[in-house]
Specification:
alpha+beta, Cytochrome p450, 9% strand
Length: 405
Amino acid sequence: MTGTFDWTDVEFDLSDVNFVTDREAGERWTGAPRPVCPGRFSDGADVYVVTRYEAVRSLFADRRVSNHPPEGVHLDSMRRRGVPEELLKYFDSTIMTMVPEDHRRVRSLIDRAFSVRRVKSLRPRIERLADQLLDQMDPEGETDLVAGYAHPISTTVICELLGVDDEYRDQWLKWSEAFTTFVRPDPEILPPALHGMVDTVIRLIGARRAQPGDDLISDLVQISDETEKLDEVELVALVLVLVQAGLDTVRHSISLSFFNLLVHPDQLELVKSHPENTVQAVRELMRYSGPIKMALPRFAAEPIEIDGVTIPKDGQIQLVVGAANNDPERFTDPRVLDVTRADNPQLSFAAGDHFCPGASLATAETEIALNKLFARYPDVRLAADPDEVGPRFLKAVTRLPVQLV
């Protein structure tokens, strides 16, 4: 097949709330009939859906594929999603959608914050935090591992790293839930949430400019004020992205990891009995059912042919990481969770120039959260029907009640 699809009969429709939330519909991503299929994005735009491992991996690294949308496309999409006009500049200037030269300039500023040495220095703080949260749990009662463990770990670590004050942390989760949805956001909820996020970041930047601290926002403010590497809009946009990514991705990584281990007792026993191998286990948990199912949309800078399908110049591309990580042509028995899997080049943190800078920190937080809880409560068990609390393909675990003993 070459040329364009029949867009009246899409196979993957992200604008349909039933498709997004239905488990059976979501499973179709992993069994797509070909590497490239016709789809529809949440804002109604046509999109080329790419699901096979080799195709997804190659497009992550393909310089003919750009994260920077054609002129006006991203702005129009945000308007359709309900982003207020006065805030568009902050969500159109993110590191995720910049042209390559701007991306490299801004990316170099944050790689230091997530260096191996920085992550290693954070481990004692993460371990103390996990211990404190475990101390607060009632061993005899029911505990929600999302609200009582995964959320406070992810929120505290990223907010302390950046310098987000305590008073904003719980509120940020509510704002986040209004924004990070695959369906069209509620027009009554989204604008005030976005205003809250932007206004808070602007206040934090002003506070760190007046009184710098030992945090990433202070470092970025100094760079912005003393060099030409970051302007004020880019500064606000960068902080927004870092808080959002650090909070949501890690919270879901920890929650999904616990869920999948609790419903696979044989794998749970392996993790408990070999805590020294938990990093390898986390990689497999991310492959099997990680929090990032789809990458941000890409665009073809020139025509690209994949398996006989031609994606035209400016065509929107949706790389489905969740499907690629379960491609039977790349992974043996992909729907089997195997925490001892050694050959595991999963794509949950993307690849190429846009590989997630916080990947090592997210892995460390998940590893520590698992080991700490299983060491304290080795007999922990799920206290709800797995079908009731389990994830759908594009919706993560939001509640995870457990009995600790």
